[in-house]
Amino acid sequence: MILLLLACSSQCEVDQDLDYSQDEHWICKPGRADLCSDALPGVNVESDGSISDFEVAESQEHGVDCFFVYPTMDLRLRLDLDTDLEEPEGPETAVRAQFAHFRQVCNTWSPVYRQATIGTYFKDEDRAEACFDTAYSDIEDAWTQYLSESDKPFVLIGHSQGAQHGYELIREQISADPELQARLVAAYPIGAPVADESPLPTCQEDAEWGCQLPYRSYAEGNDMPDFSGGEDLECVHPDEPEAEGWAPLARVMLLADKQLELPERLEPDPELFLAYDNAFEARCVTEGSLSALEVRWSADDARIAPYDPDTRDIRGNTGTHILDMSFGQYGLMADIQRRSANLAEQ
Question: Could you tell me the residue range of the domain that residue 69 belongs to?
């Protein structure tokens, strides 16, 4: 039995740290041509059902940085680490879908890291700890390198496993350093429980700095997903943090996935973004210690809802977790603009 446990632990231990001074260990980094500066083709789905092309501005220098940690993209069901980083197709897909658009409001930083597989979440906590510790150590090393290269105010963004490591970074690094606390514009830990009580206050006012804006989504009419591991889930509306009821999601971005109901004349294209303006709305709902963002289709026009809330995947325990950033991405970008407008006063 002892030998078996040692073998499981060794799967999640690594012999060498990643050198984040090397560009190859960054998916996005300012000042170079990379995934966050590539073209981002997209179409607006108009209220009359037609489509029109939209363009995303090229990368430019901003007064604020964004540091993004991508979600779990290694879907193997066994306890392990994703150590094949030479061709990170999954991580790049996530960064492109969830983060590349942020170049319009901030300088984009996103490291590649040896993340825990999806199967690690379903293993014994003691056995899984080594995997998550290794993944976090990579994020911590990338963070140290980032701090050596930039002294700008920053926004910390993470989704799912990325938010889990973001919380750890807040507890271990940011909250313990007054200088870093002063530079933190906001944190967006999306789709993860508030582990060990985050030291950051929940965002309430637009001018507030150093706060967090968390949420996890599910479709209207479905059961609230409980994927919290026994910890609390919090919720703030990404477009209107002060909203107490239903409020619009001004711009929802979805990829033209084959599982979606696409507008006429469009074929599935995993690189094409679909923009739905003022077609969804959301509200934060609380049940016991859990809070989540309930989302519904609200367009009363010629547009067709891109997904059915009664499908098995969306109705299940994970809810619309995979779409968390799609619903709130542009709301979070607007939030960065509002908060960073007070830059001169900080």
Answer: 18-345
Asked whether residue 200 is domain-assigned, the answer is yes
Would residue 237 count as lying in a domain? yes
Q: What are phi and psi of 55, to 5 degrees?
A: -115, 150
Between CA 192 and CA 290 the distance in angstroms is 11
The pLDDT tens digits of the residues spanning 79-115 come to 999 988 877 889 999 999 999 999 999 999 999 999 9
Q: What is the pLDDT of residue 272?
A: 95
DSSP, residue by residue, 80-91: -B----SS-HHH
156 within 8 A of 170, measured Cβ to Cβ: yes
Distance CA 154, CA 157 (A): 10
By CB atoms closer than 10 A (0-12, 13-18, 19+), residue 322 is middle
Beta strands in the chain (DSSP E): 26-28, 42-45, 51-54, 65-69, 107-111, 154-159, 184-190, 211-212, 217-219, 247-256, 269-287, 290-297
Q: How far is CA 260 from the centre of its chain?
A: 21
Please give the pLDDT value at position 228: 59
* Range of lowest pLDDT (95-99, 144-148, 171-175, 230-234): 230-234
